[in-house]
Structure formats: C-alpha cells, structure tokens
C-alpha cells in the first residue's frame, strides 16, 4: 500500500532529480547508539520473519536494488577490480530515511554491525559535504540508492 510518507519520499526524489539538489540531505539521518543497543535485544522472531520472501524470490524481481547496478549484465560481476572504484579507506558514507520504525532501525543496525564484524567495510554517517553516499530508504518497500555527484 502506498502511504503519504512514501508519496513525500517519491516527491523529494523527483524534486532532487529535476533541480540537481539532494532533497534527502534535509531529512536523512544515521543510525544511533540506541539503534545498535536495540539490535542486541532483538528476539529470534524479530530477526527471522516467516513471511519474508526467500532470497530466490527477491532475486527474481530485484526490486530492492535500483539504478545501473540492477541491470543483469552488471549484476553478474562479482567484485570491483579497479581501486579507483572502491570506497576510500573502506568507509561508506550513508544516510537513512526517517520513515523507519524502531524495529526496522534495529534490524538495519544489526546488519551494519555484521558488516563491521565480518568485513573491512565501515558504514559512517554521511556529512552534508559528501557527494557519493548510500541512501537507505522506503519507497515501495526497502530501497538502497547510491548517489554519485
């Protein structure tokens, strides 16, 4: 179902596309210590939703990935071979939509912590001066959008 919050996010995206101005800077935020503390308190039922789509079903539609990375030709590649294409120092600036619930923020924090524990990548809150960043938001479910300026 399409809510008013989703409508505003689509409108923000459209305005930022037309104007070249990043509307998400005005309303995007980062995960907090509270979110990471809540992530540690998640129950098994909260972590494993029996109604969630299987990985095969998600990959069939690929509606959670948008932009050029979603094309099948590019999606087949298994990594980045050019150092210039890597995130500097393995730090990925990000911001998230304010439309997530506390539970959803805790789940995102849990996922970020897993990346921090198991990889050399670090998600860092985006500053207003960073042009390349990851935006995690809700439009028609979950969407991750990479912005490059």
Order of helices and strands: HHHHHHEHEEE
- The value of Rg in angstroms is 16 Å
Estimated helix fraction:
40-55%
Count the domains.
1
What is the overall silhouette? globular
How would you sum up the major sheet? Answer: 4 strands, mixed
Q: Output the structural class.
A: alpha/beta
Side-by-side strand order of the widest sheet: 2-1-3-4
Low-confidence stretches: 18-26
Give the N-to-C terminal Cα separation.
Answer: 32 Å
Assess the beta-strand content as a share of residues: 5-15%
Number of H/I helices: 7
Rounded mean pLDDT is 73
How many DSSP-defined strands?
Answer: 4
GO biological process, one term: proteolysis
GO molecular function: metalloendopeptidase activity
Protein name: Astacin domain-containing protein
Pfam families: Astacin
Structural description of this entry:
The protein is an alpha/beta fold and 149 residues long. The protein is built from 7 helices and 4 strands. Strands 2-1-3-4 form a 4-stranded mixed beta sheet, covered by helices on one side. Mean pLDDT is 73; it is low at 18-26. The protein has one domain (4-50, 82-147). It has helices spanning 4-19, 24-27, 33-40, 44-47, 55-61, 72-75, 102-118; strands at 91-96, 122-125, 133-137, 143-147.
Quickly describe the structure.
With 149 residues, the protein is of the alpha/beta class. The protein has 7 helices and 4 strands.
Using brief descriptors, characterize the structure shown:
alpha/beta, 4-stranded mixed beta sheet, 40% helix, 13% strand, globular
